What we know:
The protein is of the alpha+beta class. 25% of the residues lie in helices and 26% in strands. Strand 9 (189-195) and strand 10 form a beta hairpin. Helix 9 (351-369) runs parallel beside helix 16 (707-719), helix 12 packs parallel to helix 13 and helix 15 (628-647) crosses helix 16 (707-719). The N and C termini lie far apart (67 Å). The chain binds dioxothiomolybdenum(VI) ion.
Amino acid sequence: MTQQPRTNVGSSESRVDGRLKVTGRAAYAADHSPEDGIEGIVYAVVVDSAVGRGRVTGVDTRAALEQAGVITVISHLNAPRLPYLDNSSSNNPPGTRLRVFQDDQVRFFGQPVAVAIAETLEVAQHAASLVEVHYDAEPPSTDLTAAPADEPATYARGTADSALASAPVRLELAYRLARNHHNPMEPHATIARWDGHNLTVWDKTQWVVGGTQRELAAVFGIPQPSVRVISPFVGGGFGSALRAWPHVTIAALAARETGRPVKLVLNRRQLYFGTGFRPAYQYGVRVGSDKSGRLTAMVHDIRAETSSYEKFTEAAMSPGQMLYSMPHVRQAYATVPLDVNTPLYMRGPGYASAAFVIESAMDELAHELGIDPIHLRRRNEPSTDESNGLPFSTRRLRECYTVGAREFSWNPRNPKPRSTRDGDWLIGTGMATAVYDTLRNTAQAHVRLSADGTAMVQAAASDMGPGTYTSMTQVAADTLGLTMDTVEFRLGDSLMPPTPPHGGSQTMASVGSAVNDASDKVRRQAITLAVNDPNSPLHGVNPNDIIVRRGRITAKDDPTRGETYQQLLTRNNREHIELIGSFAPGQDRFSMYAYGAVFAEVAVDARLGLVRVRRMLGVYDAGRIVNPKLADSQALGGMVGGIGTALLEHTVTDPRDGRIVNANFADYLVPVNADIPDLRAVYLNGNDPEASPIGVKGLGEVVIVGVAPAIANAVFHATGRRIRELPITAEALL
Ligand code: MOS
């Protein structure tokens, strides 16, 4: 059957949910209310541990329970034992999960040790403050550099150590990356209600089915369909909502114990202890090359923090294996168990951290050899993926470099550090390469085309901000041959067809392809109905010669011959045509990644060490761009996040008790408008049909990768100072 014209895909549509959001009518997790059928909500406030390791020896709840309006206080002393069935998945790291209120052990500072439930939020807060917890405390282990590591994961090709020993040019470099917290605008929140054995939760989650629903079913030992998860809007996530944290269980447990619907909202401070984070890294790299800059070997020694009770790993080894051509690579990636909460994926997980090291090291090598950083990267561009021998589906890094150098005015560039001044400011430019895996997973979507000519599309996806509501509407509208205002896309309910986690930049490729498939099937069924219907003007026409535009089915070469969906369905007494569509990634015959080249100009105050980013450009090879306006919101947002990682963000732990000392927005610095200069993103006009039927590779992660090293490299160019530790602080530059 003929291809539908793309009229909406590729167009900079504004968010279809924009009006709901700016008028405050979009209901985030904690916003759900009696209007949604939740009667008699009570409030839960978590009491968290004031020591970083040890045992709870007593919980005195008398003062709390005396308060009018307090319903109960739950701790390990009175909580029921919960089944906590094992449900290990890639997003719930295997191991002994933190089991809330199941024993007296304190595993990290801020661990939930009790919860107060009351008729109002204020009373619950006051009651929580009156709960007296007694501890037998021990000194926690929180220092990544001092604690012993687990057995490392390893990778090797060739003989890297001997190749390094004989390399004409050698660098041995040690980098450190601070822990970062996701800090979404919307705090994590859950409302839980039991109806007999069935549990409904309104939750902030990036994965209604595999995250919250599966976790709660396992914790309470009930069938997964007995848990319904509703999450229509997510106010940012960056990965923090990819799994259900203990507070989700606490809300459900509190609801079961009190027989009332319970609302639990973490406050900003609690987000630092109650949800995950980007782990701190210690990353040593040795680089060998010939005198022309052709890489011969790299050795990566990676250490990253994890918790004492779960082993969290991310894709920190991938870029070192496939980004540049070289015969010899050896990697060791060891997790270091500490008395901390378990980390979790944060935007560009693994890749962003590894790219800071690799792309800084490439800049060091370019400087050492006196080669332009772009030329050095071109010289080491592989023709296949050397980690597995597969051809690239699309890899257009050379174009990214060319377009980036032109649009950024990279040349002419005096490579000498500290060669450009603007008054008190030292000016420098830097660049870095970005890469992120094109993840895809099985997904389904449901499309119902109604006799009134409108369509409803549903999938259990999330929209934490990239504009999923809008982009899916664009895909469905094109494939169905409808206008966007006659298509409604719904997401965020575990009753809808299942989708993968809304993370790792896989929603557009996976869910978008399922939406495309379902829409395609529905359109084909309508066309079949028309050509077989003796009363249709299209009776007998070859289905391949039919297209649908603006809800009207016509012969391709005679637009006057046709009818609307409405006419067709009504005449045939069909209320609707509805079908499930799906996407399943095939066998990987190709190496699939999104790529980018990131350019930054910084100014560094020569006397104060203050770094200001002046301008930044990213050029991306991410396959088809469904909506350039939404893509910009991803790319510019990724740059803002990367500026935070590069210059500001640093979760600081007090080694004496494991307390995070800057667990608030006054002390944990994120970029504000005054930190953000002129940012620009350019997308290579692309289509990667190997990656997904709609040609999409994924964009949301790759746009943060490469930002921190581009800035670090610009700082070196400006000052001659090589800072191998993130964030880059004024202190380090003085
Ligand atoms: Mo993001 S770490 O893909 O939610």
